[in-house]
Structure to design on (265 residues):
């Protein structure tokens, strides 16, 4: 439970770091090309699903948030380029696959997963879809402008403390995903297979839970870029590669293989 509370604090810290910008107009969901600086809206889960199914590969991207950040994002981006090459080859080019992520803002001075996604879009021309709770839309101006498409889901709150938003991860009691993770991966009883690949570059406990769910329920193969954080968790300063690293080591990750296929939990 204490870990879960810490994850919530960390995620809240990450989102509060964003530069707020209010979007005054919303393009229609069916538009393929968003207006300049304005993400197109995917109004509901059906619209999100239909849109993503247009792509041969749908890649869920996770990693360090604004609290831990990346020590050397260029090293990480160079490693991610290997996945870009593979996905371009297997899917038919950058127009045939899409990156899905939690809507984190991009800040070059505090490089986190949001910054990596923005750089993948800028350098490699892939489309970006954010899955974010409607609290961000209603209260903080929505997601950043490096996002092409966005789906806002109904915000979920911790039943033990209704002031705490469940941003993502897996409920330890039920084993079910919460927040954005539930939109992407479904439930333990009925996992969604909408995502074809999951790539994580480092990552804290929420990323650890998401990867564990994807592997345990055989949702999709997982790619791992071992990444050193800039600011270690003060409660676990020895985890310079994040909580995700031990899980990936247990699941047979090695630097010569792009994908981990199944769980060994």
């Amino acid at each position: 439970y204490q870990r879960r509370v810490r994850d919530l604090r960390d995620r809240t810290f990450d989102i509060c770091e964003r530069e707020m910008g209010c979007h005054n107009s919303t393009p229609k969901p069916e538009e393929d090309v968003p207006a300049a600086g304005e993400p197109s809206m995917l109004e509901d889960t059906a619209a999100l699903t239909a849109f993503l199914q247009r792509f041969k590969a749908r890649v869920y991207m996770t990693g360090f948030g604004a609290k831990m950040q990346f020590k050397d994002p260029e090293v990480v981006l160079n490693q991610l380029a290997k996945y870009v090459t593979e996905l371009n080859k297997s899917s038919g080019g950058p127009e045939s696959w899409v990156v899905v992520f939690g809507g984190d803002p991009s800040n070059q001075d505090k490089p986190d997963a949001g910054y990596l996604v923005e750089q993948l879009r800028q350098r490699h021309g892939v489309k970006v879809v954010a899955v974010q709770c409607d609290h961000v839309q209603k209260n903080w101006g929505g997601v950043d402008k490096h996002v092409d498409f966005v789906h806002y889901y109904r915000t979920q709150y911790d039943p033990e403390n209704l002031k705490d938003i469940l941003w993502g991860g897996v409920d330890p009691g039920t084993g079910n995903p919460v927040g954005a993770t539930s939109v992407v991966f479904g439930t333990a009883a009925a996992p969604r297979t909408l995502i074809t690949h999951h790539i994580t570059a480092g990552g804290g406990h929420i990323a650890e839970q998401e990867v564990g769910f994807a592997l345990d329920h055989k949702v999709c193969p997982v790619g791992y870029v071992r990444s050193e954080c800039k600011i270690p968790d003060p409660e676990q300063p020895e985890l310079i590669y994040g909580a995700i690293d031990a899980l990936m080591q247990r699941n047979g990750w090695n630097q010569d293989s792009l994908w981990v296929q199944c769980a060994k939990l």
In short: The radius of gyration is 17 Å.
